Amino acid sequence: GEVGYRTNDVDVFSGKRATGDATLEEWSGMVNAVYDFNLNSEKWGLGLGAGIGIDNPRFKDSSGHDSNDKVFAFQGIAGLTYRVNQHWDLMLNYRYFNAAQAELEQNANVGPREIDFEKHSVTIGFRYGYDEPPVIVQPKTCEELGNCPKPEVKQFIVFFGWNKCNITAE
Q1: Beta strands in 39-142 (DSSP E)
Q2: Cα-based angle 41, 48, 5 (whole degrees, multiple of 5)
Q3: What is the pTM of this model?
Q4: In this predicted model, what pLDDT tens digit does every residue of 111-168 receive, in sequence order?
Q5: Backbone angles phi, psi at 168, to 5 degrees
Q6: Which phi and psi (to 5°) does residue 156 adopt?
Q7: How far apart are CA 27 and CA 106, in angstroms?
Q8: Are 55 and 82 within 8 A, CB to CB?
């Protein structure tokens, strides 16, 4: 799950100059699925994923006008991770966020206009994996430890053909 908040100053709204100081705030709630790939190394990984949810954009200006809408949103996620230790990863993520067809009004005199929000973001951060499996240490062989048991001595009866002494490994 992910909750996001973004705020921007607005100079131009839907092709027209915004009235006074104007801001665009967005709250979003997303459900994401990310799959981590091991890059043939114990340290490096690649994550690819996607998310869906709801975006709530709100346009406000200094005259007191306030317009908001709730729309469907989706995002694509790609990230590179470096394992610092068993629980902590350093990550670099890219996200493409899209919330389409939000209907917002610039002021009370102009009806709502349909606006598409597309955002590209790059983030750097740490990720904590609290349920990581413990590192499995491969046990050393008895040859590496130098304590192999001595082979058990066995006695065999060997029968030879008449006037022969051929002994094979079998």
Answers
A1: 44-61, 66-68, 71-83, 88-104, 113-128
A2: 125
A3: 0.65
A4: 677 778 889 999 999 988 776 556 667 777 777 777 777 778 778 777 777 888 777 7
A5: -110, 170
A6: -130, 150
A7: 19
A8: no
Mean pLDDT score of the chain, rounded to an integer? 83
Which residues, 6+ apart, have CB-to-CB distance to 68 below 8 Å?
Answer: 56, 57, 58, 59, 104
The C-alpha atoms of residue 114 and residue 155 are separated, in whole angstroms, by 93
Residue with tokens 């006074």: 20
Which two tokens mark 37?
């790939």
Question: Contact 73/55 with Cβ under 8 angstroms?
Answer: yes
Q: Give residue-wise pLDDT tens across range 92-111.
A: 999 999 998 888 876 656 66
Residue for token pair 């470096």: 82
Q: Quickly list H helices, the chain.
A: 142-145
